[in-house]
Design goal:
- The protein has 16 helices and 17 strands.
- The protein is of the alpha/beta class and 532 residues long.
- It has one domain: Alpha/Beta hydrolase fold, catalytic domain (Rossmann fold).
- The strands form three sheets. It has an eleven-stranded mixed β-sheet with strand order 4-5-9-11-10-12-13-14-15-16-17, with helices on both faces. A four-stranded mixed β-sheet has the order 1-2-3-6, with no helix packed on it. A two-stranded parallel ribbon has the order 7-8.
- The chain starts with a strand and ends in a 20-residue tail after the last helix.
- The N terminus is likely disordered.
Length: 532
């Protein structure tokens, strides 16, 4: 137990540890050699007039605050029917800006891993059962999970909101929450045994998108030392007042949403019931995403990474073999023959078609369409992160998760989007109700130990190392990567030609300036601009 802590119980595992940190005294629980603190507020509740305003740091509290239960999740619409990620949350509230900490009892100056949950920036919470930090913390790190505003509450831009802002901007409230949480961690984590100068931000899916936003935002600079992005997607992003890349301006989208909801003013929006507003906004098609505002996010992610303006930190990044298998919208209607597939690919892809048909041939259109969607969204992004961080002289470590087990493979969900999460957190026995059960076969346990070892080693030193596992070489000139199948295995040149082809596609779309590069589904992709 660190010098800042005192125990209010006796034997380890039964005590009620109290930590005195700059935010105030706080009581948690002790379990299996860890001290655990839940529901710690890092910002004031963004309610009433404070709704859609930047977070304000929580004041120092008096007395000893109880932190033995998770705080409520941020208000969100119901999960989509059949979602594998649907889980029971500890209630929902606008008063939701809290974080949770798992720390070894003996931690002193330990590395810190801050987990940003996924869920399309619309669903989820740091308290989700998949993200229990207990097993990861036993590897000698402090694990922190956070809540941040979601959906319409986290990402609405609107002219009236911009008029209220000293900077003349709006949107990005969920991202600002993440930055506020990182500032709280910087000030307070030493009291829990963590090193505020050795913080790794990590996330999957929308959490990985958030990692890239934080790498891109000048406001987050200096708040973390390393980054992990699992199944990230470097999407084209709406700009505050200008329509570019097929996106309408974010402020205009906010005005149109308000009109659909019958809200004649910002006051009317603020007076709506929160749960009803969350669901109505989602049903009206509101897409939660960052806003390029010139301040929190200065420019498109692709531009920031091209210019080398992102945080110069080591990166661990990768994607899964079956990313698209749980997303029906990513698989367009199948053509009725191989010839029809080839014809449609040529019609939409022009002079790039031959190379793409080599990568995604017509002999199995369904597999090819799932693969092109996976690579265009997640594979391209992962390798691009490795390329751009390497160009900064930073170590970058690329992986490809290709591990399945009987329950996933029978359901055609081999290595699906997010399926690496219980392997990382060691939560095979804590998955959501619809999650394909991982029954703890020896290969599954071995992969779990390897991933946890690599990830926590990276958080400690910036180099992923796992006991009795192969060395993981940095991406570098050899395009090195780690392949997680039945066992980890190093390799070079993952999917030859994949990155180059999708980079060329995105380059043309960026040059044209009027088409998005978010979702390339092969025969359902917008027709590519041709070279002039």
């Amino acid at each position: 137990m660190s010098m800042q802590q005192t125990a209010a119980g006796s034997p380890s595992g039964l005590g009620t540890p109290v930590v005195h940190c700059p935010a105030g005294a706080i009581r948690g629980t002790a379990r299996h050699g860890l001290t655990i603190f839940k529901g710690i507020p890092y910002a004031l509740p963004p309610v009433g007039p404070a709704l859609w305003t930047p977070p304000v740091a929580a004041p120092v509290w008096a007395g000893i605050r109880d932190a033995t239960k998770f705080g409520p999740a941020c208000v969100q619409p119901p999960r989509k029917p059949g979602s594998l990620f649907a889980d029971t949350l500890p209630g929902e509230s606008e008063d939701c800006l809290s974080l949770n900490i798992w720390a070894p009892e003996s931690a002193q100056n330990a590395p810190v891993l801050v987990w940003l949950h996924g869920g399309s920036l619309t669903w989820g919470a740091g308290s989700e059962i998949l993200y229990d930090g207990e097993i990861l913390a036993t590897h000698g790190i402090v694990v922190v999970t956070i809540n941040y505003r979601l959906g319409v509450f986290g990402y609405l831009a609107h002219p009236e909101l911009s008029a209220e802002s000293p900077d003349g901007i709006s949107g990005n409230y969920g991202l600002l929450d993440q930055i506020a949480a990182l500032k709280w961690i910087k000030r307070n984590i030493a009291a829990f045994g963590g090193n505020p100068d050795n913080v790794t931000i990590a996330g999957e899916s929308a959490g990985a998108l958030s990692v890239m936003y934080l790498m891109a935002s000048p406001m987050a600079r200096g708040l973390f030392a390393k980054a992990i992005a699992q199944s990230a997607y470097m999407k084209s992003t709406p700009e505050l007042r200008e329509g570019r890349f097929g996106e309408i301006p974010a402020e205009q989208a906010g005005v149109e949403l308000a009109a659909k909801l019958g809200a004649v003013s910002l006051k009317a929006l603020r007076n709506m019931d929160a749960a009803a507003l969350a669901e109505a906004a989602q049903q009206a098609g509101f897409a939660a995403e960052g806003t390029i505002d010139g301040h929190v996010l200065p420019r498109q992610l692709v531009d920031i990474f091209d210019l080398g303006e992102q945080a110069p930190v080591p990166v661990l990044t990768g994607f899964n073999c079956g990313e698209a298998s749980i997303f029906p919208f990513m698989l367009p209607p199948l053509p009725d023959s191989a010839a029809a597939y080839e014809a449609e690919m040529r019609a939409r892809n022009g002079d790039l078609a031959d190379a793409l048909l080599t990568l995604y041939p017509s002999d199995d259109p369904r597999t090819s369409l799932l693969s092109i969607a996976r690579d265009a969204v997640y594979g391209w992004t992962a390798e691009r992160l490795a390329v751009k961080q390497s160009a900064l002289g930073m170590p970058a470590f690329l992986y490809y998760f290709d591990h399945g087990y009987p329950e996933t493979d029978v359901a055609n969900l081999h290595a699906f989007h997010g399926s690496e999460l219980p392997f990382l957190f060691g939560t095979h026995d804590k998955t959501p109700p619809r999650w394909p059960n991982a029954n703890g076969r020896p290969p599954d346990n071995a992969i779990s130990e390897a991933i946890a070892g690599y990830w926590t080693s990276f958080a400690k030193s910036g180099v992923p190392v796992a006991k009795d596992q192969p060395d993981w070489q940095p991406y570098g000139r050899d395009r090195a990567y780690m392949h997680f199948a039945e066992a980890p295995c190093g390799g070079n040149n993952l999917s030859p030609g994949m990155y180059r082809q999708h980079e060329e596609d995105v380059r043309r779309r960026r040059t044209a300036g009027n088409t998005a590069w978010n979702w390339n589904f092969g025969i359902a992709a917008p027709t590519r601009p041709t070279e002039t």
